[in-house]
Specification:
Number of strands: 0
Radius of gyration: 31 Å
Number of helices: 2
Order of helices and strands: HH
Region (Disordered): 1-43
Biased composition (Basic and acidic residues): 8-19
Helix content: 25-40%
Structural class: mainly alpha
Length: 71
């Protein structure tokens, strides 16, 4: 008679640690998806002021354009 086979290792300690780590990272992502409840959010977005590039500029390089805009 042969000895019975050992059952296959399906849950090793490393696999359990990987699953626990993945679950922990998912919890962290879920927790940090939105800001904490005690932080106030602005009611509207801040407007960025961007200076337009002049249409009638004779400058061909960015350095010349910067010098022209500085004047």
């Amino acid at each position: 008679m042969k000895a019975p086979r050992k059952p296959a290792k399906t849950d090793t300690a490393r696999a359990e640690a990987k699953r626990a780590s993945a679950a922990h990272l998912a919890d962290l992502r879920r927790a940090h998806r939105s800001p904490p409840p005690d932080v106030g959010l602005p009611s509207r977005a801040a407007v960025r002021l961007v200076c337009p590039i002049p249409d009638a500029s004779w400058c061909s390089s960015p350095a010349q354009l910067c010098a022209e805009l500085a004047e």
